[in-house]
Amino acid sequence: MDLFNDLYDCTENLLPKEGIVNYFGQIMTHEEANQYYKLLLNEIDWKNDQAVIFGKLIETKRKIAWYGDIPFAYTYSKVTKTALPWTKTLMQLKQLAELKTGETYNSCLLNLYHDGSEGMAWHSDGEKQLKRHGAIASLSFGAERKFAFKHKQTKEVVALNLASGSLLVMKGTTQDNWLHRLPPTKKVGNPRVNLTFRTIDLDQ
Ligand SMILES: O=C(O)CCC(=O)C(=O)O
Ligand SMILES: [Fe+2]
């Protein structure tokens, strides 16, 4: 695993300008990643995501869950969700993400993509309730999927594959200047679980 991880320099900024994205590669063994994947699939209170699109309430096939230090209300795609208390597994993963990235987090949004037909459209995670320029740590489990960034003005694109058991961090002004997405793909038939650890600003 160490040999493999030497291929990634987690201090290298993947963005050419106006934001910072670091990819740490796989931060655990395949066995550990597989264990976490199964635990997360079973333990998490997965719900179909709801969103208001053109004024209509729709349910996505992708499932989500929202956990945090306290029952924060978080408005995402115009629907408000209340954070559930951390599970033991999520607490372990939060500590791992904090140790690796040198940042702290107080909440986590989880996404379950059943197969490659499910993805997430271009967006940035700049919600008002999030700490301005706070780091967002992304842990992935299960199927490897492509993840892409697009500069809001120049439309430059940067893409990479997120492996099972891998960690990526977005920080600085990334959310101001770049969109990101998880493109749908016909090549993937297995589920993927993604965790994004975030910091809700309690003064907002
Ligand atoms: O699934 C991913 O890798 C990204 C999810 C994401 O961008 C989000 O939850 O805001
Ligand atoms: Fe996002």
From TrEMBL:
The keyword DNA repair applies. Its cofactor is Fe(2+). Keywords: Dioxygenase, DNA damage, DNA repair, Iron, Magnesium, Metal-binding, Oxidoreductase. InterPro entries: AlkB-like, AlkB-like_sf, ALKBH3, Oxoglu/Fe-dep_dioxygenase_dom. SUPFAM superfamilies: Clavaminate synthase-like. One of its GO terms (biological process) is DNA alkylation repair. GO terms for molecular function: catalytic activity, acting on DNA; demethylase activity; dioxygenase activity; hydrolase activity; metal ion binding; oxidoreductase activity, acting on paired donors, with incorporation or reduction of molecular oxygen. Residues 104-201 form the Fe2OG dioxygenase domain. The keyword Phosphoprotein does not apply. This is Alkylated DNA repair dioxygenase AlkB. It comes from Algoriella xinjiangensis.
